[in-house]
Fold this protein.
Amino acid sequence: MSDGSVDIHKTHFTSEIGPELDGKMVVLAGWVESIRKLGGIKFIILRDKEGRSQITVPKSNSVFDEVDKLGKEYVILVRGKVRKIEKAPQGAEIIPEEIRVLNTSVSPLPLDPSGKVDANLDTQLDNRVLDLRRPEKTAIFIIRHEASKAIRDFLIKRGFIEINTPKIIASASEGGADLFPISYYEKEAFLSQSAQLYKEQMSSVFEKVFEIAPCYRAELSRTVRHLSEVYTVDVEVAFNNYLDVMSLLEELISHVFKHIKKNCSEELKTLNRELPVPKTPFPRYTYTEIVEKLQAEGIEMNWGEDISTQAYRKLGEMLRGLYFIVDWPTAGKPFYIMPRKDKPEICESFDLMYEWLELASGGTRIHKKDMLIERLKEQKLNPESFAFHLKTYDWGMPPHAGWGLGLDRLVMVLTGAENIRDCVLYPRDRDRLTP
Ligand code: AMO
């Protein structure tokens, strides 16, 4: 066994090892997942990003004694010959001629990456790198990656332009109090709580825009569905209304489900997750219908009030899968949402739900400056703080509509995770700022 930097490179990933390579010399590199001794033979399970291979070291092998110096999660490079063998998990094993230790690790490790010993969520998140090496954690992030890719591909194919809007801003985009102030040279600034105003402005240039980016919410509550740093998919489309962008959203969601089912079957199996592809159109209920359903179930709420967590949980028991709640009270939705012409107390808005979980919200936007100023005032916001935004309404603002979809929550649904923290590499919440 020799120490060494990388002067030879891996020739294969573990997933490429199989009986058809019988007799071939290969170089694998990765992490020691386990070492077992059985009779006179030592077995190393080597893990890389693609999976696992068995390294078999018989007594007669020149590296036999050196295996004892290895520890769990050591980084090793193995040069050896593939041997076809039916009993091995891949139908083949590697008989090593050389094992190089590229790096060591501590013993005991704070968390067992093989997942045999359970750890609580805080231990998992405190030792996230080790935690993410567990197959059911790796699977979540492969699915997240594939979901982002599917979303991007879908929107680009439909003629959307991907944009990047500022995350350091001077005033609230949504109104409300959940902003993080930051010190910005001599001024106070805020972390952006949504791409809202900028994506609306960009609809007057590119017509169809999207962004996948973080936004920041100073959430006071500690729940399994709220974070302070949230990834959202934001979409805005000129010359569309809320019904148009609802169709776009349900087609996108259905495309993502299909893509994950097709491309992540191994990961879904690891997670024990069946993922039936939802049929479009998704069921639609008005806010008023939802209030009536909840009241009938004994939930105390009046028309116009927010839906409480308890009420959402009740909805999750009553309504399975994906559905929309449409036509919300204008007073409860942000200032930029268009009130209905026939009934201004209701607005052209929607939330996309998965059982109890809100996945997205959106609506038709107000594109007339006077009306927008009116709505800002009604919501006790100061139009002067929005001067930079309002002036763009003097330059030819088209009618437009859009939505924001919580990517972290979508990954919860795709993977069946019960806590949003499982779906984010390094979650940020009220209590957690590291690692
Ligand atoms: P909204 O505030 O509903 O809408 O956010 C859009 C979606 O983002 C997700 N989300 C969150 N996920 C986890 N933790 C949070 N603290 C959190 N806050 C929001 C949810 C939510 O549905 N500008 C509008 C969208 C639009 O109208 O285009 C907006 O931000 O899944």
In short: The radius of gyration is 27 Å. The chain has eleven helices and 17 strands.
